[in-house]
Specification:
This protein is of the alpha+beta class and 336 residues long. It has 2 domains: 198 residues, H-NOX domain (Alpha-Beta Complex), CATH 3.90.1520; 108 residues, Arc Repressor Mutant, subunit A. Helix content is 54%, strand content 10%. It has 17 helices and 7 strands. The strands form 2 sheets. It has a 5-stranded mixed β-sheet. Strands 1-2 form a two-stranded antiparallel ribbon. α3 crosses α7 and α10 packs across α11. The longest helix has 23 residues.
Length: 336
Amino acid sequence: MTPTSLATLGLIAQRVLEMHGLDATAMLARHGIDRALLDNPEARIPSRAWDALARDAAAAIPDPAFGLLAARCWHPSNLGALGYAWLTSSTLRTGLGRVVRYWRLLGEASSTRLEEAPAGLTFVLARQAQDPASGAVTVDFVTSLLVDMCRMNAGSSLRPLAVRLRRVRPADHQVYRRFFGCTVHFDADEDSITIARRDADRQLPTSNRQLAWTLDRILADQLARLDQDNIVARCQAQLFEQLSSGEMSEDSMATQLHMSRRTLQRKLAEADLTYQKLVDDTRRDLALRHLENPRHSLTDITFLLGFSQQSAFTRAFKRWTGLSPAEYRARRNSRA
């Protein structure tokens, strides 16, 4: 299938083009992008159209670092529900994890991952092969946007520890150092941003755990609808919806997804998962999020996760983390 991207991201590109005095509507039309689609939060546009627009813009704009202007042109709504979920994140680590989990909603022509680095946490962007011009613009666009998102939540003084870019080092490379506030390595083997562990794990004043939970359910459902072949996303969307009613059996899940139990097992095996591991992983992630919310008692969390008794939840949580839920919450509160 042809990779697509969220249409509302085009509003950021439009503002960048207009800042350079270009006729953005005409440029969009030249590459088959209807300007009206950019206002539709449900619309998606072929990724190849964005690549062609990036090449066109690179040829028309003399500043090779113009993609960094994305940081001045975005609004959370341009990222759909993910933009608002980002604002509710309790830490940058949580927020970046959310971005990685739901990245396909933004664009299917690339992927992202988080890696633990000796000095901190590294966000890595991996894209399908592009020509150097459009690739450089795209990476500048994404990395500048991501860093500004972090600064919106954690404060404008945030500085990454390092930025690595595969693009060729431009003549005026100091503009990158000024924007990122750190050493930028060009001609690198990957496109990545590393932030200090203390910045990644600091509690954010913008967090709203209750709203984050609601938005995560919306995002899981959107991801499941986007990719019907993504069996993990489809199962998680069902689990988010129904765990509080009790543990959902494998047979019930297969029925909900309109397939046989054997087909469900086969598809999960292709993702190197069993149904029980998927339920366990989903419960663990939800448990960690719920425990961050002081409004939820351990009894509340027990039933939100579909456990019949608090003792069963405690045993499972100790298996996942080595701590009881109460011990985990106490440690988080003391660090905060």
